[in-house]
Amino acid sequence: MKQVFLKLLAWWKLAALPAILKLGFWGAGAVALLDSSSIPVPMDAILAVFVWQNKSHFWLYCLLAAAGSAIGGLLPYGLGRAGGELFLLKRVNRKRFEELRDRFERQEFLAVMIPSMLPPPTPWKIFVFAAGVFEMRVGPYMVAVFAGRLVRWLLLALLVLKLGPGAVNLVAHHAVTALALVAVLVALAILGWWLKKRQEKTEARP
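RE: above sequence
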């Protein structure tokens, strides 16, 4: 088994990765689609290489990667929708299932968007399966994944531009800090949106 893994790793580094890098923007989307749908790949590291090689178009790589992730995520979403409650219960215990259900009942969009923003080891596919199980509509689901991934990879790209490709290791070794930072940013964004809506309602009153 170890030899098979080493052969696959060598094939990835020597053949697959160089071929993907030659695809440019579309390569970022293709890898993200593969990562979200079926085969996990080191997406952050690959995107960092893309960004470092073409710094002036970093935003385009992030955009296509987010789109690819949203499209690829339709597969686990569909499996969750087809399998229903029993499908999810094979992957989480009853307590975790009820917590996920409550989260989706309160705010299903954020229940998908926030995990999509967070770096590994966030169990992203559990939330994607849950979106299907709890019958979240396809449109909002894809927008939530796209928005979350775009925020995550734009932040990563900015770190890569500032610190170099080693920024991926920085995020990996400080995952808890990264989680906290993203959570704070999301909370501030939601608070700003709520205050704006409240002000608009106040101004609209006679």
